[in-house]
Specification:
Blueprint (H helix, E strand, L loop, with lengths): L11 H12 L17 E3 L10 E3 L5 E2 L14 H13 L6 H8 L3 H15 L3 H4 L8 E9 L28 E8 L4 E6 L4 H11 L5 E5 L13 E5 L8 E2 L4 E2 L2 H18 L7 H12 L9 H11 L17
Parallel strand pairs: 4-7, 7-8
Antiparallel strand pairs: 1-2, 2-3, 4-5, 5-6, 9-10
InterPro entries: IS1016-like_transposase, Tnp_ISXO2-like, Transposase_Zn_ribbon
Pfam families: DDE_Tnp_IS1595, Zn_ribbon_IS1595
Organism: Hansschlegelia zhihuaiae
Length: about 325
Amino acid sequence: MSTLTDPIFHDNDKAREHLEAIRWENGLYCPHCGNADETSIHKLQGKSHRPGLFQCNACRQHFTVTVGTVMERSKVPLAKWVLGFHLMAASKKGMSAHQLHRMLGVTYKTAWFMAHRIREAMKEDVASSGPLGGEGKIVEADETYIGKRETPAKLSRGRIATPTKSGKAGGAQKRVVIGLVERGGRTRMVHINHATRDTVREVLVRNVDRASVLHTDESRLYTITGKEFNGHRTVKHSAGEYVRRDAEAIVHSNTIENVFSVFKRGMVGVYQHCGEAHLHRYLAEFDFRYNRRTALKISDRERTDDAIRGASGKRLTYNQFENAGHA
């Protein structure tokens, strides 16, 4: 079990060794040219070279363990990076930039940027992980609405949606998230601009194996698309039906609603505000932790190491946020 007294969280040399062991667990390679011949890669030592510096004789480039990762060109000490990864991976409902700023002893701006880069490392590679479900598997689908859209959706006649009588934002004024979860397995949440049969169908067919059995509520968003899957079973929430026992399965969408519950508690209680341009990274963060949850016998240390593995091959620069705004 990982504890905050572990040297990798306080000693930069230990942190660097830990990062190297994770990134190059299958052998050292050059992030510039891809050279994996360790006999042509040399570690540069001595007072004239910074710790952890390598030279690739194939391309004559220098590199460290952070080159080609979300940590590249960061001046934050490596021990603080490892601790930041751990805090983000171990906190079930997330950790705010203000909390990271206090715990890591860095400025708020630095903590905010670190948190987004760690979320980028947590993003799933959908192309390699493949669709959810499959033959004999159940995938639950549902939609939820969160926050307020920065650009309210237009109604079919071109009118801008107005608030409800209570003064709260109506569905067309909120951000839409489609949630999918393979029962007993992975989840995947996707932000879409507006919930229609076509937009929901696009999310489903891209992310769910059509051999799966789909479980949803009675929403008309799923009635037509559900026919494209191996089966489509629904529960009627409006009639007070939340679980139904059929001969083949227990029909419900409670699993994805539990995923939404953790996500919303984190967004409201921890983050409080999220710019719409960055919502996809917050979704990736919650997906990452759920897919490596304690119930699957994955420890905080293993979850942290997985996040660090995901940092390789990704970059996120501050300039990418200039037009997106902060959150």
